[in-house]
Design a protein that fits this description.
6-stranded antiparallel β-sheet, transmembrane, alpha+beta, 5-stranded mixed β-sheet, Heat Shock Protein 90, membrane, single chain, 3 domains
Length: 475
């Protein structure tokens, strides 16, 4: 089947034309099969009719009187009844044991032996004697070759008389063939025309959703990503295609908006330390005293630039799926305790309460895991309210390491909570304008967790509390 359709599929044509051509080929093949089967049935029906007719006529000829003088007229009438156009296509003989040959066609040949004909194909009994096992009348049917032609024969026997009729096979179907051919001259062009129209209509209906989808794609620009295709009334396959297309536009629109916001925020975050650096360098350039250069302040701003660019690089690698991990065996309980011990005294009377389990074994990138923990802890300290108690717990739960860190904070709206993991998002400026940071910490922490087959999520809590849960697979 593939070999049949492959030439059509390889042709450089439109989808609509390909559907049209394939539909026409299928309809043509079905039409040819139907016509072949119909012709076979018609020929078989005509053969059955001829068999019945020959038996009836053979029985009638067996009743001829011995001195019948109207023999030739009977032969002509029989030829008309059997639809034989040429007398040479009809063989006939009526023979009586007492009187010999009673009737014989003009083209009968004595070389024809009735005993050599295979009569086993069909036997029709027309009457029975008192002894039901022995018929008194019978009509046998058979085929034989004679004069390089195929003949159909009927032999009727009754008592001491027999009548034999044979017709040329080709003569019985000649008129039928001519009639069918005359009908096909009209039927076939009309059927092909209707099939072509139906195929073209089918192609148009089948490609209509594709055309709509193509037209919609052409209208999509970076300024018009909100357009969506309706899928009401569409077929299931095209409805799924339209839903996939709309979902793709949703992702594309979100990605474009995120990229635009990311570019603007990155430019804004990099602008501040660069402006400070430039201002201080310009002051030194305008001053005659080079000792006025504040190197520590410059180093702080350069450190901020370095931190932002390093985080941006890690995020870009995570987005591209190329965040390389150098995994080593780790005890996260030891790592967390070391990080907490290295913390300086917390500002504004804040305290850190810890509950850390033991033997939290894990395989991961030591540098990135330290970055993750540092981002979470520093973020909780930075945005917690003065005098707040920050809670940190780390335990094994169902072969998964769960680390939960909670801190009190200024009340957060639901909209703000949805944006906590957005890049460069730093909460409400009215409450957090004094807080240093780039707004990349939580985004990077989540990407690092997911790169290690874990996740970082925001747990439900009251408006004045933030609770983060980090999950990592254990060894």
């Amino acid at each position: 089947m593939t070999a049949i359709w492959s030439p059509v599929l390889r042709l450089n044509m439109s989808f609509r034309t390909r559907i049209f051509v394939i539909s026409c080929l299928i309809v043509g093949a079905v039409l040819a099969v139907v016509m072949g089967l119909t012709w076979t049935r018609i020929v078989q029906g005509e053969a059955d009719r001829l068999d019945d007719r020959m038996c009836i006529e053979a029985k009638g000829l067996a009743s001829l009187p011995a001195n019948d003088t109207n023999g030739m007229n009977r032969v002509s009438d029989l030829a008309m009844k059997l639809r034989v156009n040429d007398p040479i296509q009809l063989l006939l003989q009526v023979h009586s044991q007492q009187n010999g040959v009673l009737l014989q066609s003009a083209y009968w040949q004595d070389s024809l032996s009735l005993e050599k004909i295979d009569w086993s194909k069909a036997v029709q009994s027309t009457g029975l004697s008192e002894n039901e096992n022995q018929p008194t009348e019978s009509c046998k049917l058979g085929d034989f070759e004679h004069q390089e032609r195929r003949w159909r024969a009927a032999l009727f026997t009754r008592s001491d008389i027999r009548s034999f009729i044979a017709t040329d096979r080709s003569s019985t179907t000649q008129d039928l063939r001519q009639a069918v051919q005359s009908a096909l001259v009209v039927v076939i062009p009309l059927a092909l025309l209707l099939s072509a129209f139906a195929a073209w209509l089918l192609a148009n209906v089948a490609t209509r959703p594709v055309n709509r989808l193509s037209s919609a794609m052409e209208t999509v620009t970076q300024k018009d990503l909100h357009h969506r295709l309706p899928n009401e009334g569409e077929d299931r396959e095209f409805k799924q295609l339209i839903e996939t297309y709309n979902a793709m536009l949703d992702r594309l629109e979100r990605s474009f908006q995120q990229a635009s916001r990311f570019s603007a925020d990155a430019a804004h975050e990099l602008k501040t330390p660069l402006t400070i650096l430039r201002g201080q360098l310009e002051q030194v350039a305008r001053s005659d005293d080079p000792n006025r250069l504040d190197l520590s302040s410059l180093l702080d701003e350069v450190g901020k630039l370095s931190s932002i660019t390093r985080k941006l690089l890690l995020l870009s690698q995570a987005d591209a799926g190329r965040l390389s991990l150098h995994s080593v065996a780790m005890n996260l309980d030891i790592t967390l305790r070391e990080l907490i011990e290295d913390l300086d005294e917390l500002p504004n009377g804040k305290i850190l309460k810890c509950s850390i389990g033991s033997t939290l074994r894990f395989d991961g990138d030591d540098v990135l895991i330290h970055q993750l923990f540092n981002n979470l802890i520093s973020n909780a300290i930075r945005y917690s309210t003065p005098g707040a108690a920050i809670e940190l717990s780390a335990h094994m739960v169902n072969w998964t390491i769960e680390i939960i860190i909670t801190n009190p904070c200024a009340p957060l709206t639901d909209e703000t909570r949805k944006q906590l993991f957005d890049r460069f998002f730093r909460g409400d400026p009215a409450h957090n304008s004094y807080v240093e940071g780039s707004g990349l910490g939580l985004s990077l922490a989540r990407e690092i967790a997911r790169a290690h087959r874990g996740d970082l999520v925001l747990l439900p809590s009251s408006d004045d509390r933030v609770s983060m849960k980090l999950t990592l697979p254990t060894v």
